[in-house]
Amino acid sequence: MIFNFAKSNNLTKKFDKVFYRNLFQLAIDGPAASGKSSTARMAAQQLNFEYIDSGAMYRAVTLAALRQNLSPTLLEDVSKIAQLAATSHIHLHTTFDPPPLPLTHSIPSSSITSSLPQTLVYLNGEDVTYEIRSPEITNNVSGIASNLDVRKVLVEKQRALASGIYDENQNKFSPTPLIKKSPKGTVMDGRDVGTVILPNADLKIFVTASAKVRATRRFKELQQQSYSKRISQIIDFNKVLEDLEKRDKSDYERKISPLKKANDALFLDSSHMSVTEQVDKIVELVLKRAKEKNIDL
Ligand SMILES: Nc1ncnc2c1ncn2[C@@H]1O[C@H](COP(=O)(O)OP(=O)(O)O)[C@@H](O)[C@H]1O
Ligand SMILES: Nc1ccn([C@H]2C[C@H](O)[C@@H](COP(=O)(O)OP(=O)(O)O)O2)c(=O)n1
Predict the structure, then answer these.
(1) What positions does the domain Cytidylate kinase occupy (predicted)?
(2) Which ligand is nearest to the CA of 207?
(3) CATH (residue range 17-287)
(4) pTM of the shown model
């Protein structure tokens, strides 16, 4: 099924007004490993907000495309990838109380993050949470994300998700709001949330850190993943840094929706901040903005 964009646009506009009148929208953008998703999830937990990981949706489409041997550089494959983005059921579920990771003697206790919130990602009902973080997907996602047709489809779904009118299980837009629990707002992170997806967000934060700091974070994350999967794998820091800089270049320089700070976004350099400090700062900025705008959180 291909979405009727004109129709879904009208729906989005209509319910943006009705449903989001009193809900807070927080947009967080920034380069890879700046700490967007982990801190956005923790801030969402503290604020009772819904969390939407827009990057996970690009990753899920990349996985679907690679499984069908489709390449974003081949003209004949491009429309097939956009079609896959439209027809795939991508379901995000953030759990604030995840089950503990399997313990092995080789995991340093400092690296166990089981008490942190996690976002489970389902592609057509299959749990692909870990698969979409593999180096193969990471190295191919920029090519898919720079495709205009894919972006049109996913931006539409992301806006509808933030407005509570997209049913991820059915892959359908709904005429009535779907969020069953009552979050006080939405936080979405990505590259174009403040500039394209939610241009009227109540607060926009552009978070970054130096490439070396970000590569160190990714390096530690990859080491931890190989511990928990019980595989001994040599991870080369210079390769992690090189891949990250390559992806930065592609995210910043692409023609469509490049990674860019929105004019009205606040800049947050997390190079010298701990995760807790970063979360506290985000929560503080949200509470301050909500007070200024008379939004009751
Ligand atoms: N301020 C911080 N200090 C140290 N590590 C951090 C910080 N913010 C995030 N991290 C860690 O860095 C890694 C990448 O963070 P993540 O939130 O996935 O980044 P992004 O979503 O921007 O790609 C994660 O392992 C996370 O726990
Ligand atoms: N709103 C978004 C979110 C992500 N993307 C692209 C850019 C990134 O290279 C990929 C993956 O995003 P993701 O946030 O998962 O990547 P990192 O965790 O920051 O490494 O998707 C995008 O183009 N627009």
Answers:
(1) 27-163, 183-286
(2) 1
(3) 3.40.50.300
(4) 0.86
